[in-house]
Design brief:
single chain, Diaminopimelate Epimerase, Chain A, domain 1, eight-stranded mixed beta barrel, 17 strands, globular
């Protein structure tokens, strides 16, 4: 019999094509009274677990995952920490949608018809998800995001491959740089994904070199997560197509849940989307989320909005990963080009 030094079970789902690998095996004790403190501890002390689940050969450069932890605030049912190829996310909309589907479908929370509510403590703040439940199957998931706002408007950065690019920095659970693909001569299509990755990486680096980012209320939210690139839709009924290039050049296959919140906020605050008007956001693979602005609020000195995002997730299968004691890649690796 082989000798295993690690044995871990997960369940894999996808939201609009974007994966979510949820750890089912018990988490090691994670100290900290807040989810941000717990995320910091995991990063410093147990990053081997993230790398084991995300990296090749068990995962890949575009893999995404999540840990569920006990709630730390009133009204929450779970804490959640999201993981990816570079580290840990502040917030993840597609992940919340997938978790809503998984937790209700598999009976990990008391199911209520026609809609089951789940509260999450996420690093970006408190998130509520509402999962359709017909007594047999979990359906669409809607989540109420943390407030979104435009952090900096009309920021121009210079890139080596695309020249000057103009966009807005928006916070929507994470900070993104929002740009239109046409100014770089591109469109949001699968066959252009290589150039879109290059555009996202170059603009992210340029923004980070030029702008100091800091959430006005939470010191732990202070990094640019990625670039969101939009263009004309190709799916009937969609208002636009977009792709998010985040972390270390990772490509979101979904329309991006947090990114859809930010786009709705950006359009509303620029007078191009009405209160309660549903905006349909298409991904690079043709999946669609609906998003609407539901309330105007303030975040520090920033005009902000609350949004609701709706999408669907699907379960793909269970994984049981093991590690042989003499495996030369105990935490895996990522093999990809530098450009």
């Amino acid at each position: 019999m082989p000798s295993f030094s690690r044995s871990i079970q997960t369940i894999d789902a996808h939201t609009g094509g974007e994966p979510l690998r949820l750890l089912l095996s018990p988490m090691p004790p994670v100290p900290g009274s807040t989810i941000l403190q717990q995320r910091c501890w995991l990063k410093q002390n147990r990053d081997d677990l993230r790398r084991f689940l995300i990296n090749e050969p068990r995962g890949h450069a575009d893999m995404y995952g999540a840990y569920l932890l006990p709630a730390t605030t009133p009204g929450a049912d779970f804490g959640v920490i999201f993981i990816h190829n570079e580290g840990y996310s502040d917030m993840c909309g597609h992940g919340i949608i997938a978790l809503g589907k998984l937790l209700v479908e598999l009976g990990y929370i008391e199911r209520v018809s026609p809609v089951t509510r789940i509260g999450f403590d996420a690093p970006a703040g408190f998130i509520e998800a509402f999962v359709q439940w017909n007594g047999t199957r979990a359906g669409e998931v809607m989540f109420r995001n943390v407030p979104s706002f435009i952090y900096q408007r009309d920021l121009v950065v210079k890139t080596a491959g695309f020249g000057a690019i103009t966009g807005d920095i928006v916070f929507c659970g994470a900070f993104y740089y929002y740009i239109n693909a046409e100014q770089s001569g591109l469109s949001v299509r699968p066959e252009q994904v290589g150039r879109l990755i290059q555009l996202g990486a170059e603009t992210k680096a340029a923004v980070m070199a030029q702008v100091s980012i800091q959430h006005p209320l939470e010191p732990g939210l202070n990094t640019l997560y990625g670039t969101i690139i939009d263009g004309p839709a190709s799916v009937a009924g969609a208002d636009q197509a977009n792709v998010c290039i985040f972390a270390d050049r990772e490509v979101d296959r979904s329309p991006t849940g947090t990114g859809s919140s930010g786009r709705a906020a950006q359009l509303f605050l620029r007078g191009r989307l009405g209160m309660g008007e549903v905006f349909r956001n298409e991904s690079i693979v043709g999946s669609v989320f609906g998003v609407k602005v539901t309330e105007q609020v303030k975040v520090g000195s920033f005009d902000a909005v609350r949004t609701e995002v709706t999408g669907s997730a699907h379960i793909m299968g269970y994984q049981h990963f093991v590690l042989e004691a003499d495996d030369p890649f105990p935490t895996g690796f990522l093999l990809r080009s530098s450009t």
